[in-house]
Known about the structure:
mainly alpha, Leucine-rich Repeat Variant, two-stranded antiparallel sheet, 39 helices, globular, protein transport, ARM-like, Importin-5-like, transport
Amino acid sequence: NAVLTTAFRFIRCLPSLNERQLFQNLLPATLRMLTDAMSNSENVLAQDVLSFFTKLAKNEPRFLRTQLADVVNTMFEIAEAKSLKEPTRHMAVSFVLKLLEGKEKALGMLQKLPWFTNTFLEILFNLLLDIKDEPHWHTAETNNENAGVTKGYYFGCSGLEQLSKALGDKTIAPVAIEQLSAYLVAPEWEKRHAALIALFYIVEGSSKVMINYLEQLVNMVLQPFQDPHPRVRWAAIRSIAWWSIEFFPDLQEKYHNHVLPALASAMDDFQNPRVQAHASVAVMKFCISKKPETLVPYLDGILNKLLVLLQTDNQMVQEAALDALGYIADFSKEHFQKYYDFVTPHLKALLVNANDKSNHIIRSKAMECISFVGIAVGKEKFRDDLHQAMEVLKSLQESRVKELDTIVYILQAWSRICQCVGKDFLPYMSTVMPFLVECAQLEPDKTVFTNGPYSSTQKVKLWDELICIKGSDLLYAKFVACSNLALYALSMKEDFYPWIPQAASIFAPLLKFYMHNNIRNNAARGLYVLLRSAKLAVENGAAQGGESYFKQLSGNIILALGDALYSEPETKLCAYILRSLGNCLQICGPLLNEEQVCSIIGDIKHVITEISRRKGELTERAKSKDFDVEAAELLREEREQEDEVFENVGHILVTLIETFKAAFLPFFYELSSYLMPSESKDKTAAERITCFFIFDKLVEYCGEEALKYFNIYLPFLLEARNDEIPLVRQNALFGLGLCAEYAGSVFRPFVGEALPRINVVIMHFRAREVENELAYDNAISALDKILQFHRETIDSAQVCTSDNH
């Protein structure tokens, strides 16, 4: 092991790939060491060698390039050798998975091996056969849907998902469908089950192309609904449940007449409550259609079945039925009105009967379901049952439940009822807020995150007691509580004023809560919503301190959002924070002092510099020898995120220009070098559009004091009016019109050049096509502005053609 560790460190220390290639003879020697260890049953040595190769795969994959075929082939032989111990076989699979990981993966090298995909898929499929038919899976007395599965099974599942994501849709789809079709008709239930589980994970990783095989996939999964083994039927239902999200809305719109009757039939499987419960879950997930009317014809039958399931003795079946009923109400909206009087008595009965501690979860889910029903039917219809619902929620909250899932149901039910009744919720705020604040302030102990924040067990204080909860449950409860805080502020508007200081003190630190992206997102959005409530409270005379209170609050919020930009690791979250900052500036911009504006400019400089740095890294990745179609798609998505960040920077600057007009120009000058158009291709279309948008506002709001920027921007506007991207043309032509209107004598030298270029756009034979329509309209408008403001400098021959057109 020491020799292998030294060899690995030596390879990593070599400064260049060429120097590393000089030591390629290490690989055959190490492979021989591995095969010898296998032959002699020296498992410890074999695992040491496998660990060496896995480190290479993770850190120096290109070192393996010249002998990759031999190395991978050896790993496959080890993975398929039934005589070897399971950990050793799994290490061989892990080596291959490490090669597929990360942005600098060795995928391009692997795809050049013609046998790689088929062989590795088969190895992973076979891992899924490692399953036992445990009797307690069938009783559905616990939520453990994986009873009887082994480490090998889990390993196969994660491997299939990882392989699917790495190889990409086009590579894996046809191969997987062919292999799985054979498994689905095998006599062994384990193989039929494995085929459906494999299909589930492969689709999860490659749904974009798998949708082209949707009819074939639906047929493959619906047939096992009739399978004699319940675990196979369950696996088929699970696939439909997941695909309802992955293939939305195509699955709902094209196959509702096949899927919903099959699921309704599965809901009658009283001998197999786990299958029955999962059929309800699948119905719930299927009911997210953009066109509820497509599914309305099935409501009578499905709702009747769900109400029957509510009366069973199996808690899992009851819970699933309540979940489905709530989501069906939510998606069907006004179509649920006629079912309200039919369904609500059953839900009320559950609230009354499930009143001991052992039934907290049923009562909570029933309450959640009622809250969905309330949103669906509206305040007027729900009004008669509002008081009873609120009393049940209060009693649940006062019972001091310690189960986080029950707590989450209570929080979510409060928020939905608030959405339903709006400001009529105000009398209940004093009951809701103390518990909500306590949940929002739940603080995980970072020192116990040995296995990551989600899998750790946490001790936190709740109800003045220390309770032990799973890290993932804690983070989710905190996320829901923060969402509710923002929602109450949004719904209560100025009436949320008494709770603004407390909510702000919660949100501001959470901008740097790096354990959970959505909590940071909610914090950024929540601060904007609080500022909006405070503004309304000041305007309505409800806020003590008036303008000075609002000025201090807005200053603190702007400072917190700007400060968060310096340490935010996620590009997408950076865009969210900027959007919230921009929204806040639209509310409080005129109150900013010079120091605060300087601080914002510094924040924006940092953001733009980081965009440039990350774009450079993306460019370098595109130069990689193993850069392929899948890597290109990943880069495209990351560049779109960078565009979103820059667009939000643009909106902030536009808000400041509109607010301070020419007084903002000295601050803008500090950023101008970052925002100038460029003849090179380093700026994306979105970046060019954003730069033009900012310049438009300078022209419109800053008058003659902004004229020094005209000579820089105008040539780029003229050039961009013929850009291949319609949105760029459209914005460039709009900018030309503004310049014609506001630039006066500065624009005059450009008139002769602008007219023929505008004419080209107007006269183009495709000018009136839908994608070019806005550019055409802006060209006409620009021409009109030139005629209006610069008529004396124009040769009539230049425009007669345009006028006639």
